[in-house]
Amino acid sequence: MVPAPLIGFTLGVLFAWLGRDDIARGAPGSLSSRSLAIVSLYALFAFAPSCAIFLVLEPDWAGAYLFDGGRARLLQVAGALLALSSVPAGFVLAARPTRARRPGEIVRLGAASGLSALALTLALFPRLSVRASYAQYHGDFGTQPVAGTALGWSLFWVLFVLTLATTYTGSALRRLGS
Question: Under 8 Å CB-to-CB from 98, ≥6 apart: which residues?
Fold first, then answer.
């Protein structure tokens, strides 16, 4: 999905804030912490598959009909890798201000990516609310609303599982600090 890297980056910043006690205990300048390992596992086993499933099932929809998903496989692979790396990248970039206890800088970092993801999602919402192929969308035929389709149910299920995984990861990061 197009806004996935921005969402992942925002989640990484949030996870850095939740794991702030573990980050503060680590050596300055060190990226080796238990919280980074947890965040990386979350990105690998929860966030990236949640994004990649739509690249496999509905490649045109995942690209918001901006390009033909059947012909732009390299672009899709690059997008999936960007989504995978966005969560740890947000975590790592937020680690320094987290260690220095500068919440304003962390809020700016997270808010910038979060608001950008929201704006992009809202801008693409008319495209993302329709299930079709690239040709159908641009030819204005054969489209159907996402609600009630297999894509709609897949979205619901993936968001449910991702919410559970995010909640669990956040609580695991908080427990590291106690």
Answer: 16, 17, 19, 20, 23, 24, 106
How far apart, in whole angstroms, are the C-alpha atoms of residue 64 and residue 139? 15
Locus of tokens 């700016």:
108
| Best CA proximity match to 20, nearest among 74, 100, 137, 84 | 100
Give the SS3 label for residue 65: coil
Q: In the prediction, which pLDDT does 28 show?
A: 61
pLDDT along the chain (178 residues), means of 10: 92 93 72 85 96 90 88 84 95 86 88 96 95 93 94 96 97 87
Q: Scanning the structure block, which residue is given the tokens 């990105």?
A: 43
Tokens of 9: 């980056």
- Quick one: pLDDT at residue 53? 92
Beta bridge partners of 144: 131
- Pure H helices in the chain: 4-18, 20-25, 34-42, 48-57, 59-62, 73-99, 103-128, 134-139, 150-177
Q: What is the pLDDT of residue 27?
A: 61
Could you give the CA distance from residue 116 to residue 2 in angstroms, rounded to a whole number?
Answer: 12
Three-point CA angle 17, 120, 69, nearest 5°: 110
